User: Fold these one by one.
Assistant:
Number 1:
Amino acid sequence: MGLKAVFFDLDDTLYTSFQACDAYAYERLAAWAEDEFGVSGAAFADAYRTNRHRLGRQQPGMPPVHDRVLFAQGALERMGLNAIRYARKAHRVYWDAVISQMELRPGVTALLDDLKQAGVRTAVCTDMLADIQMEKLEYLGLADRITYLVSSEEAGMDKPGAPIFWLALAKCGCLPGEAVMVGDNFRHDVQGATDVGIGGVWLNWTHLPRPEDSRAYTEVHDFEQAADYIRTLL
């Protein structure tokens, strides 16, 4: 079967690096809390982080674990501050900081243009809420180059759960053997995709040790290598 669709993770795959963006966002949250309330910025950032981890424990693999409004709500409540008035403001401070630091990986635009020219559909399959991922794609200049967004919020479960991959296949109108998935997280992106029969491309840009796994997949170390491999499938 020929290649009909390519699925991409977004964070740490189409841009780098989410960890650095996240660290900067915590700095901006701390400064915001100090300016807004006159409280310790470090204490607010710690409360925000604590609530983030709490949600992760309580709802593992579920989309609310990505909701920065909920993180901020819990942090503000812990500190005796008005969560209803300020949680959305904190959410905006966080994401404005993250987005300001994003840098598109070399080779992304060229590959997406080549895939569109070849009639191959594309989807971003991401463990995140839809609205912020749409905003990121617009900021990165990819909104008109990606055919579909498939978020775990829409699918109801994070990767490596199968629903997000089946939904992407349905949107693109193809069978598992007609698609490949590119992502930096081996468990979420490669194992999740190959579990349902989609080809896996592991963007191992941090040069992690190769996992002990018998499944077939392709390993690359930068996005341009991934792009070169995908072009061989056209």
Number 2:
Amino acid sequence: MSSTLNDVLKALATDIEETARLVEGLDETTWNAETPAPGWSIADQIAHLTFIFHLAGTAASDPEGFAKLAAGAAGDFDGAVNAALKQFNQFPPAQLLARFRALGQQSVDALAAVPEDQVVPWLVNPLPPTVLASAGIMEIFGHGQDIADALGVRREPTERLRHLVLFAFLTKDFGYLSRGLTPPAEPFRIEVTAPNGEIWAYGPEDAAQKVAGPAEDFCLLVTRRRHRDDLALVATGEEADRWLDIAQAYRGPAGEGRTPGQFAHQNCEH
């Protein structure tokens, strides 16, 4: 089930606006409240997303400008992220939020202008605009979850999660690569239940390695915003079970993740 660039960008634009509304009207103290990501405040989360959208918008509209930005990040991506946090964090809440919205929309518009059969330069390899937009959805889902957790609110899962589920299926090797492990050649099947009860399935039907459960739980797993013990996911096969421990839909270090039981009370409805 493939998505058009327009489908993914509409979902991304909606996610950006939903996240903006989460933080709209927060006072300065709450903006600086800690999130479950150690050392990251709500302001840091919005600043990071603003930086990511700035990068993506530049990559799609100004490849030369992007090359300069990326060159600064190439040797030390964490350093570049931290520098960007300082750059965007200097703005008071209303101004940071305005930049988040503007640069988010700019990235959507810039990606929309790229023909679907072309690629956009990115940090490791050039990516088709649909894949880069899906990576944006992954970023905003994960960082938006940290913000929602800090504010004690629950975001309603929607059919837009399908783009993240497919992206996580396509990037299922990242968890192995980030740990220096060789990804298995054996095929996986991901079979998750959408919020509307539909089944989204990727990978061969007869695959011995399979992961099943609610789509939202799957997305929380691959963004490492919940520990597998707090999710209603079922692995069939030894390798699929191992994957639940290391799954991540982003490149680079896995980060600390979350601990078992940290959010257990929130999943009693599953």
Number 3:
Amino acid sequence: MHNPSATLLIIDDDEVVRARLAAHLQAKGFRVLQASNGMQGMQAFKDAQPDLLICDLRMPQLDGLELIRQLNAQGSETPVILLSGAATMSDVVEALRLGASDYLLKPLDDLAVLEHSVRRALDEAALRQENRRYREKLEATNRELQASLSLLEEDQNAGRQVQLNMLPQSPWHTDDLLFEHQIIPSLYLSGDFVDYFRLDQHRVAFYLADVSGHGASSAFVTVLLKFMTTRLLYESRRNGLLPAFKPSEVLGHINRGLLNCKLGKHVTMLGGVIDQLSNQLTYSIGGHLPLPVLYSQGSARFLEGRGLPIGLFEHAVHEDYVMDLPDSFSLTMLSDGIFDLLPGESLKDKEASLPQLVSAAGGTLNGLRDALELTTLGDMPDDIALLVLSRNLA
């Protein structure tokens, strides 16, 4: 998680010890600066702003504990590892009270212990920074939600702008995955919503939701969905450990949230997580039709799945489905408003035509736009949402 080429500052008045530590850590890929006493160390810290300090406890002029005190007074969150050859319990307690990341005893016969302490401290610092960013994002989302509620009551135009601003970037590339979406509201505001975002370095999450009804009241629920998923992501990361983040559990969380709000609205929804390390998709269905359509090697098929809608049943249980992904594929997700554009007399006939349509469109959003003539649509009886994620399509 941490920067493998992080800058370290070693402060020690013993030149032999300092050189030995620096040589080992440089060999492990770190950039290492050195200072021979606390005063020089403070100046080097101001000049270079290193990512971590390794500091001897006993030094002339400015010892390790006083150095930490001065860093704390400056508001610094840079981790500090203290070294000492003559530690007392009171020194250890005071160092940890002041916020030292670790306290190691000299002589360091096994420098792997120091390296492990450095990497752990850098990881913890990176997690603190990431949590702060998510906290700021959550606070910003809270402010946006409060503003959105007022604006939706006062001005439909402002409400539409807020909803558009909540939608993710389209197209969005993350590593070898491409996400694209389009939402066509039946009224000025839409009850359909999509979102996708990175969970961590190797997992990406997405969902498509279709809120019952139309207009401002349904659009409000999409704002609430955005808030609940953002808050859930923040809460999951708060302790620095992101759990499995199973789609079925996310649907359950949203189900409870909607029931508690007592808005009289329910949602059909599908969501998934792609693990790029295992190349697996885990997804869950919340009463949503049509099912996602997987396109690969020139053919398309529905994914399996079923589940109860969100916001209707207190004890609804949702299931996770897991599948290996092809090297080249697209996954097309649509709200049920798409049935108004499909050929066929019955809903069953319309649904049956969808894989063939996705296949003819080459599994792409642009192909679907052309096939369904979305650019020339007039007023529609229902909102329409399209979300296509793909990888390595020719």
Number 4:
Amino acid sequence: MEVRHLRQLADAIPVAMLVVDRRARVVAANHAAVALFGQGLSDRPFVTVVRHPSVNHAIDWVLDPDADPAPYDDPDLPPPAEGILRLRATLSAKGRDRACVVTVGPVVIGGTRGAAVSIEDSTGIEQAEQMRRDFVANVSHELRTPLTALMGFIETLRGPARNDAAARDRFLDIMEREAGRMNRLVADLLSLSRVEGDERRRPAQKVDLANLVRSVVATATPNARAAGVRFEMDMPSEPVNVPGDADQIVQVFHNLIENAVKYGGQGGVVRLSLVHIDHEPVLRGPGWAVTVEDQGEGIDALHLPRLTERFYRVDNHRSREQGGTGLGLAIVKHIINRHRGRLRIESEKGHGSRFTVILPEQQPR
């Protein structure tokens, strides 16, 4: 095949592809390869483009199968067949390490033997798999702790505390608390799953944002009073209609207000405000901003970027004592993403925290 035909064929392939001649010099590189490795790939020795011993060994073997044994040692990939090799490799491209699956096979260029190299970037897949493993590990840990406590108390009640009424009542109270914690965790996991499933579907209904916030505050008031916290609200008297899912927006503000009472209630006041924004750059248009502000001890700046990660807690012990599952802000983030809004978190140690939810006034196109 002529080089120009190889270049045309390579450009039609969606993954990075390089073609080398019998001297292992690059004679063709498609657009995906240029995007991965940069300009100026043609007529370069392949070893200067991809500096990975196993990949270069595979190139040498394909160009001359009799010279060395096939460089195959990955049990998760198919064995070499008909002169084609597949291997996993971590390649450095544009200053970043990328997990890749590299396929090397023979090709005829102008009557002589060459090699075609395709490079599939699997970094995103591996990161997603790692996130899945971390998520399963976190869920297992969060469930194991209360389950271990329940099993221990059941064993005690069947044995030493069988006839101890005072111990029985105390243990049953703890068991009820641990069972409630598991129930909240399962509920939040189901909620997170539903929210993630809906994230690509934009809400089609209009909701009164001001009225929804007032209803959440009314629901939270008894618990706030019990904690010695009062609410101060600055809300417009007229309806504020925005595109939204009423149940999900209630869930957002329920989580934020509950957190403000639990973790920021030491100051005795939680302030809520709703203001109009003429132009929010991220939304590319007007929006409405709801701010939940507390006077608590605040959050150290190093924690702020990770607050919406699943199971991330600033203070594990305190969060569990307060009944937190570590999923509330992750749910908030996904709901706001579905509404094409944004969440802004501002906090300083010793000066309280401000959580601002900005929702678009009109449905984004």
